[in-house]
C-alpha cells in the first residue's frame, strides 16, 4: 500500500504568543527523513524517531503562523506527503471554555456520547480537537458535539477552543483535555 504521512499539533489548537506546541509527523515507515515545509519552502529536516519526528515551537510569535506540511524522503526522493496543517498564533481574549463529556469519560462501544464546550460569550463558536488529527470539528449547535454509536476509534484525548465571530476574530485558550475510553 501507499505510504501515508500524518501531521498534527500536540497539543492541538491556536497558540498564544509566547506559547508552545509541537508539530508531529508520523508514518508507518522504516528509515529515511521527514522534511518539514513552511509556506511551501523547506524549513527543517527532521530525524525519524521510530515512526515519527517532532518539531517544537516555543515562545511562539506571529512568524510561526502559516501552512506546514511534512514530506517523507529517502535521499532526494519524496515517498509521501502529508496534508497541510495551518498553525495559528493569536492572542487569547476570551475566557477559557468549560469542557465535559457525557455520560462520562469511559463508555461502552455503541454508546451515545456528547462533548460539551461552554463559554461565557454570546456569539462564540467552538472547535472540538482530537489529538493526532489534523482537522478539528466545528461544534454545530454552539456547544455540543454528538457521536452516536461510538467505537474504539473514537477514543483519545479531546479538548475544545472557542472564537468570537464578531468584528475581529478573538480566541480563547484551549480547554482542559479529557480522555475518552471506549470499552
TrEMBL record:
Annotated InterPro entries: Ig-like_dom_sf (IPR036179), Ig-like_fold (IPR013783), Ig-like_Receptors_ImmuneReg (IPR050412), Ig_sub (IPR003599)
GO annotation, biological process: immune response-regulating signaling pathway
This protein's UniProt keywords: Disulfide bond, Glycoprotein, Immunoglobulin domain, Receptor, Repeat, Signal
Pfam families registered for this protein in UniProt: Ig_2 (PF13895)
Protein's UniProt keywords contain Cell inner membrane: no
Stretches of the chain forming a coiled coil according to its record: none
Domain Immunoglobulin: 10-90, 102-183
Keyword check for Acyltransferase: no
PANTHER family, sorted: MHC CLASS I NK CELL RECEPTOR (PTHR11738), OSTEOCLAST-ASSOCIATED IMMUNOGLOBULIN-LIKE RECEPTOR (PTHR11738:SF186)
Name by which UniProt lists this protein: Natural cytotoxicity triggering receptor 1
Lineage: Eukaryota, Metazoa, Chordata, Craniata, Vertebrata
